[in-house]
Amino acid sequence: MAWLILVLSGVFEAVWAIALGRSEGLSRPIPSVIFVVATIISMGGLAVAMRDLPTGTAYAVWVGIGAALTVGFGMATGTEPVSALRVLFLALIVGGVIGLKAIH
Prior knowledge:
The chain has four helices and no strands. It is mainly α. It has one domain (2-103). The longest helix is centred in the middle third of the chain and has 23 residues, at 55-77.
């Protein structure tokens, strides 16, 4: 159950990062509210998952999922450039997350 919570928390990390970017310095109300709510859910889930998972592993997986999804979203929506190297490096992040899960 801790792993499921951690993965969902990583997804909410991507949500808050995207919302923060769209909030224009927290000046736009809707993205700002999404940022605050998603941050609370994301951090809360990380905290719950860390009851059963080692801190370093949980944090690395959480950040990896959030970073990969945030960059992937940016590339999918055209706000970030797409290149073979960017896709390769995202795949390495995802591979690292899977590897940490596999050896735990």
